[in-house]
Automatic annotation (TrEMBL):
The keyword Isomerase does not apply. PROSITE patterns: ABC_TRANSPORTER_1, ABC_TRANSPORTER_2. Belongs to the ABC transporter superfamily. This is ABC transporter ATP-binding protein. InterPro entries: AAA+_ATPase, ABC_Ni/Peptide_Import, ABC_transporter-like_ATP-bd, ABC_transporter-like_CS, Oligopep_ABC_C, P-loop_NTPase. PANTHER family: DIPEPTIDE TRANSPORT ATP-BINDING PROTEIN DPPD (PTHR43297:SF2), OLIGOPEPTIDE TRANSPORT ATP-BINDING PROTEIN APPD (PTHR43297). One of its GO terms (biological process) is peptide transport. It comes from Fusicatenibacter faecihominis. It holds the Pfam family ABC_tran. GO terms for molecular function: ATP binding; ATP hydrolysis activity. It is a peripheral membrane protein. Its main location: membrane. Keywords: ATP-binding, Cell membrane, Membrane, Nucleotide-binding, Transport.
């Protein structure tokens, strides 16, 4: 569905992303981890054509289905943004206009891409809010973003991002600004979207625990380059790059033995183990 091929991006001639290739298949969750400044957000923004004035794709291709996104003009990108590809951000409030009700923003988001009545648009939004476990979607529709808690706001932002039923959701640190319990709810909400709608998700984060919990494929960025790429189990168990090893070592253990936390991603031959439920616990999802 999405194929990034030997992508190079610079800001004012300084390279930020170098020779990056990766792929996201339909319905897959791909997690990209990496330290601050390694180029994760730049890579995501390049997909939606939002690199700003300084940012430039200097070579390489971004294929989405049969289109080369980096060759499309702003008008064509506008049609794709929000409809086929949508994006959610670390600060959920930044997905919303603070002086417009959430309901009105659902109507506006749908109105850009479809001829749809206000009633129908609100209905579609409320259905999504229900799927994301809001017991009172009508109240949410009448609220402003600042009236919601951080976790509610992020789930509402996910619903807004999903309202046009995009094939690909880009998520920039979707759980980082949230406390651990809400991180877990948000991670579960994203995984449910994949289950319910087959949405592919490309997510960048500092948090290898979130990736261990959610992703099918993992990439590790370091200094603008993708230094590791593969299936989650392969990367978490067979990390080769020193930065990946350090990231995995840095996952807190909370003094719990692995044996108490099945199921494992286990490589019995080498007796190396990473507990998926441990990362779930780190995310606040249970003990
Ligand atoms: N608008 C910009 N103008 C100039 N340089 C930029 C701009 N945005 C990002 N950069 C630079 O590009 C490099 C990659 O930044 P980017 O934000 O993509 O990293 P990141 O991995 O997403 O970091 P973080 O995890 O802190 O968000 C950094 O060196 C950063 O300073």
């Amino acid at each position: 569905m999405l194929n990034i091929d030997h992508l190079n991006i610079s800001y004012n001639h300084t390279p930020a992303v170098q020779d990056l290739s990766l792929a996201v298949g339909a319905g897959q969750i791909v997690g990209i981890a990496g330290e601050s400044g390694s180029g994760k957000s730049t890579m995501l923004r390049s997909i939606t054509g939002l690199l700003g004035k300084e940012g430039k794709i200097t070579s390489g291709d971004i294929w989405f289905e049969n289109r080369q996104l980096q060759l499309l003009g702003e008008k064509e990108m506008e049609k794709i943004r929000g409809k086929d590809i949508s994006m959610i951000f670390q600060q959920p409030e930044s997905s919303f206009d603070p002086v417009t009700t959430i309901g009105k923003q659902f109507c506006e988001a749908l109105g850009v891409h479809e001829k749809i009545s206000k009633k129908e648009a609100l209905g579609r939004g409320m259905e999504l809010l229900k799927k994301l476990h809001f017991p009172d979607p009508e109240r949410i529709m009448d609220s402003y973003a600042f009236e919601l808690s951080g976790g509610m706001c992020q789930r509402a932002a996910i619903a807004l991002g999903m309202v046009c039923n995009p094939k690909l959701l880009l998520a920039d640190e979707p759980t980082s600004a949230l406390d651990v319990t809400v991180q877990s709810q948000t991670a579960d909400a994203l995984m449910e979207l994949r289950e319910n709608f087959g949405t592919a998700i490309l997510m960048v984060t500092h948090n290898i625990g979130v990736i261990a919990y959610m992703a099918d494929y993992v990439g590790i960025m370091y200094n603008g380059k993708l230094v590791e790429w593969g299936k989650k189990e392969e990367i978490l168990l067979e990390a080769e790059h020193p930065y990946t090893k350090a990231l995995i070592r840095a996952v807190p253990r909370f003094g719990m033995s692995y044996e108490k936390q099945p199921p494992y991603i286990a490589d019995t031959e080498n007796e190396k183990r990473i507990s998926v439920s441990e990362t779930h616990w780190i995310l606040g999802g249970g003990k």
